[in-house]
């Protein structure tokens, strides 16, 4: 998630530089063909082009609205994970009580640390790219590769469970699911030892049920691509508009220049080309904004900051265990909070 108030132009150019060069060369080529080769027939009226532009703007607006809904739903789900994580720690500390303080501390640490392993395993699973995930140009991808947030090696779950349990998790298709299953087994063992009564067992199992629900909601967003009829045709319509745009602007600027001094006719190129580039960049940028919001768990600039949320949960839960050496909060890297 980008946290700087104003997006730096260096980052903007990482996304836009290829398009800007293409738009400038394309508009210049259209002008040269029209002006120097005298191919007057390539000029088209701007009125039908403006209708296309309005339709494309509405279409992009709808797509961006739905893309933002996916991001915001993902953020709300992780807000629920934060809240239920604290509830889980509170209930474990309150319900698991015996006459043996060492045993209590062991079980508290095991169950709370396993929960921290779960959130980290879930984060890493959600960060693995799908076949339909957006592919950026190399300059943008280098930012993500540098911070190593989409690499399976960034999984910190091994720090919070035994090596035997972690070895078993590496064999599983869905490690996060098995961590919650192991929590359920621990609750059953505590119930069989009469450490938990029926009400306490039910309360703890209810939290695990809600954690499964939250995980399933994340997986629903992750495993369901944004409807391609919207994503694909939004891009197609945008590019149809920007490719026709220079042909429509020829007529507009030539008509405007004809009303002024004769010398202005020779200079309207300096208006036609930059305005064509500007309008094309605005429309393609709006389209790209929607693309970058439709998959909120990819570890990109505008995605849900799961790493930071996992660290916040870890700090809170380990503090509830009265641990002394707490990790530092995650800070933004290049103004990006992962």
Describe the model:
It is built from eleven helices and no strands. By secondary structure, the protein is mostly helical. α3 (101-127) packs antiparallel against α6. The longest helix has 50 residues, at 46-95. The chain is elongated and about 95 Å long. The N and C termini lie close together (6 Å).
Helix run count: 11
Biggest sheet features:
none
Percent in strands: under 5%
- Quick one: overall form? elongated
Identify low-pLDDT runs: none
Give a count of the beta strands, DSSP E runs of length 2 or more. 0
**SSE order in H/E notation?**
HHHHHHHHHHH
Radius of gyration of CA atoms, rounded to a whole number: 28 Å
Q: What average pLDDT do the residues reach?
A: 86
Q: Ends: how far apart?
A: 6 Å
Helical content stands at over 70%
Structural class: mainly alpha
Task: List the SSEs and their pairings.
Elements: H1 9-35, H2 46-95, H3 101-127, H4 138-147, H5 163-170, H6 175-192, H7 198-223, H8 228-258, H9 262-265, H10 269-291, H11 306-320
Helix pairs in contact: 1-8, 1-10, 2-3, 2-7, 2-8, 2-10, 2-11, 3-6, 3-11, 6-7, 8-10
Summarize it.
With 338 residues, this protein is mainly α. The chain has helices spanning 9-35, 46-95, 101-127, 138-147, 163-170, 175-192, 198-223, 228-258, 262-265, 269-291, 306-320.
Keywords:
0% strand, mainly alpha, 71% helix, 338 residues
